[in-house]
Amino acid sequence: MSYLQLQGLAKRYGGFVAVDDVSLSVGRGEAVALLGPSGCGKTTTLRMLAGLIAPDGGTIRVDGADITREPAHRRNMGYVFQSYALFPHLSVARNVGFGLEERRVPRAEAAARVEEALSMVRLGALGGRRPRELSGGQQQRVALARALVVRPSVLLLDESLSNLDAKLRDAMRHEIRDIQRSLGITTLFVTHDQVEALTMCDRIAVMNRGRVEQVGSPEDIYERPATRFVADFVGRANILAASRGADGRVGLWGSPLPVQAPPSGEFDVFVRPQRIRLAAVSEPAAEGVARIQGQVSHSVFIGDRIEVVVEGAGGQLSVEMPSGQRPPAEGLEVAAIWPAEDTLLFPREAP
Ligand code: ATP
């Protein structure tokens, strides 16, 4: 059952189509990430939901009611801006209570709700401070409390973790996800950060050039990308040009590639670096296994893994090894091996 429903949402700026026919259903209590590169239309979509931008086409429904033309203040959506947008001259408590004042909630009730919201984000003791007296993570929590205090039907988060350092961002991801789950609040958040999308939501909608390319669980998106764009954007990927021999057999870097039902035109082969194992060239080919050969050009220690680049007849291949292993010496001729079933094929796109 969908609680929040976008149907054919569109927005143009002059002749430029920023959001193009976006449809998406979000279930009650579900968290969905809008993931995509800068400029793909994520924020525009979110702002249309919040009522901050009027769509040129399409509808927005919440719990069955069409709110497409409702003004922002009648939508009951909580919006957390990327910049937090806190009022610098107001205390933390008044920042959080702002929406309640606007809604003329009686003072005693408002005070109780502000306290509750602040303790939910673990800022119970800091209500009297000004925003500038808080760290970035604390300001982020104030913005979240401010959005939650009005008990919104939908929570909208716009790149709200991007101003935090890596460690704090990690912690906040879990914290926000826990709060979202415990409140069971329907949430849509915008991010260009795939780790954020993969860890913070039930489903991901991957956007590209104003359109939704794929909607699915994090596992779906990562393991079964539907398009070349999704494969390339989410996670690390090798995308290699396949060749086809006169006999119709598919080859990669001069080696036969055991894949079934390849597309009819030109196509590329996709495989994740961590699915590939490096072996001695003397290791024989096996059934159901893809195997190409090349020379180790370099390896880089990244901490939790080692990235090895293999160069061969068709270009470069990225291989990921667990960091405990010893990387092969540069210049060594190696076989790169992976289960053929971990290969996806995408029709070649014009650059
Ligand atoms: P980012 O992560 O960089 O914020 P985004 O995916 O959120 O990117 P949007 O902010 O939705 O992208 O913008 C989508 C496209 O629409 C961009 O190409 C942007 O330049 C364009 N755009 C956004 N707002 C306007 C505007 N007011 N006038 C003209 N073009 C706009």
Automatic annotation (TrEMBL):
PROSITE patterns tied to this protein: ABC_TRANSPORTER_1, ABC_TRANSPORTER_2
Protein name: Spermidine/putrescine transport system ATP-binding protein
Entry keyword Membrane: no
Source taxon at top rank: Bacteria
InterPro entries: AAA+_ATPase, ABC_SmlMolc_Importer, ABC_transporter-like_ATP-bd, ABC_transporter-like_CS, Mo/tungstate-bd_C_term_dom, P-loop_NTPase, Transp-assoc_OB_typ2
Keywords annotated in UniProt: ATP-binding, Nucleotide-binding, Transport
The ABC transporter domain, residue ranges: 4-234
Organism for this UniProt entry: Inquilinus ginsengisoli
One annotated GO molecular function: ATP binding
Pfam family, one: ABC_tran
Membrane-spanning ranges: none
